[in-house]
Automatic annotation (TrEMBL):
This is Coenzyme A biosynthesis bifunctional protein CoaBC. One of its GO terms (biological process) is pantothenate catabolic process. Its cofactor is Mg(2+); FMN. The chain holds residues 178 to 411 of 413 of the full protein. It comes from the Bacteria. It catalyses: N-[(R)-4-phosphopantothenoyl]-L-cysteine + H(+) = (R)-4'-phosphopantetheine + CO2; (R)-4'-phosphopantothenate + L-cysteine + CTP = N-[(R)-4-phosphopantothenoyl]-L-cysteine + CMP + diphosphate + H(+). GO terms for cellular component: phosphopantothenoylcysteine decarboxylase complex. Its EC number is 4.1.1.36, 6.3.2.5. Pathway: Cofactor biosynthesis; coenzyme A biosynthesis; CoA from (R)-pantothenate: step 3/5; Cofactor biosynthesis; coenzyme A biosynthesis; CoA from (R)-pantothenate: step 2/5. In the C-terminal section; belongs to the PPC synthetase family. In the N-terminal section; belongs to the HFCD (homo-oligomeric flavin containing Cys decarboxylase) superfamily. CTP binds at residues 99, 109, 127-130, 152, 170, 174. Binds 1 FMN per subunit. Residues 6-226 form the DNA/pantothenate metabolism flavoprotein C-terminal domain. Catalyzes two sequential steps in the biosynthesis of coenzyme A. In the first step cysteine is conjugated to 4'-phosphopantothenate to form 4-phosphopantothenoylcysteine. In the second step the latter compound is decarboxylated to form 4'-phosphopantotheine.
Amino acid sequence: DYQLPLAGRTVTISAGGTREPLDPVRFLGNRSSGKQGVALALAARDAGATVRLLAAHMEVPPPAGVEVVRVETALQLREAALAAAADSDVVIMSAAVADFRPAEVSDTKIKKRDDSADPVITLVRNPDILHELVERRNAGDAGPASQLIVGFAAETGDSDGDVLAYAEAKLRRKGCDLLVVNHVGTDKVFGQDTNAVVILARSGSEPQEAAGSKADVSAAIINRISYELNHVLP
Ligand code: C5P
C-alpha cells in the first residue's frame, strides 16, 4: 500500500508577522508576507498531514484544506502554539515573531499635542515561543515525546560561512530539531516568491541546501521532516 509520508500526522505551522499594538490604530510590525508558511502548509497538506495554520498578519490567503487560527500578537501566537503543540507531531515556527512589544498599550489613540514632549515608546521582550516549545517538549509537558520542532532563522553575514556559524549557534541555543536558515542581505527574502535555504539538523547530519520557489523549498523541508519522523526519531 502506498502511504503519503505525513499520513496520520498533525502538523502545526505558524506563518506571517506578528503585530504589536501601541494603541487602537497603531502597531509595530514587520515585513513577513506569510508566503513561506503558507507554502509549507500546502506541502504538508499534500503530504497527507492534518495541518493547523497559526496565521499572524499575512499578505496571502491561507490555503484550502487546513485549519486556520488567526492571531495578531506574539503573546496570542504563544497561546495558540502551546495549545496546538499538545497534539502535534510537528511544529514549524515560520512566523516572524516580534522580539519586543510596547510595554503599554493605550486604550485610546495617542494624540499629538503641541505642548507635550516627543513621545517615547518603551519596549519589553516577548517570550521566545520556539525555545519554550522545545523546553516543554523536553520536559514531557506538551505533545508527543517524539514531537519534531522546526525553527527558522534569517541571518546576515559577510559570507555563507559566517551565516552557518551563527545558525549553528542558534540551533544549539534554541534546541530545535531542524533549523531552516536564510542568508538575508545578499538575497532578499521577504515578500519574494523564491528562497534559498540551508537546513541544519540537531542530530548533526550534513547541512542540506534547498533553493527555488517557496513551493520547491517547502517540498524539500517537508521531505526532510518526513524523513526525520519516519527514519530518525523512532
Ligand atoms: O532568534 P530568532 O528570532 O532569529 O529566531 C527565529 C526563530 O524563532 C523562528 O522560528 C521564529 O518563529 C522563532 N521565534 C519565536 N519567538 C520569538 C522570536 C522568534 O518562536 N519571540
